[in-house]
Design brief:
47% helix
């Protein structure tokens, strides 16, 4: 049996109401009625995996917690400082 035409998308008073609606309805039934999404993605950061000793990770994590920041933020801060020092010394 052929599928019927796309159902018209109801109007919603809030994003919450929209989410509630699609929790009980199939998005595929309204796909053609959805407005086109146009956006650009600019990836400016890359993730690099580096092996660290477990004890070092634990120490860095403890220091980061004490400073109320993530380990990632703390490590990036320290690396920037060290690279800056080395660059000035050269």
């Amino acid at each position: 049996m052929a599928r019927n035409k796309t159902k018209p998308l109801p109007k919603f008073a809030s994003t919450k109401k929209l989410v509630e609606f699609f929790e009980t309805h199939d998005l595929g039934d309204y796909w053609e009625a959805m407005p086109p999404a146009d956006f650009e993605i600019h990836i400016t950061k890359r993730t690099h995996l580096v092996s660290l000793d477990q004890k070092l990770v634990e120490q860095v994590s403890a220091i980061a917690r004490a400073k109320h920041m993530s380990s990632k933020t703390l490590i990036n801060k320290w690396l920037r400082e060290k690279v800056s020092e080395q660059t000035r010394a050269s």
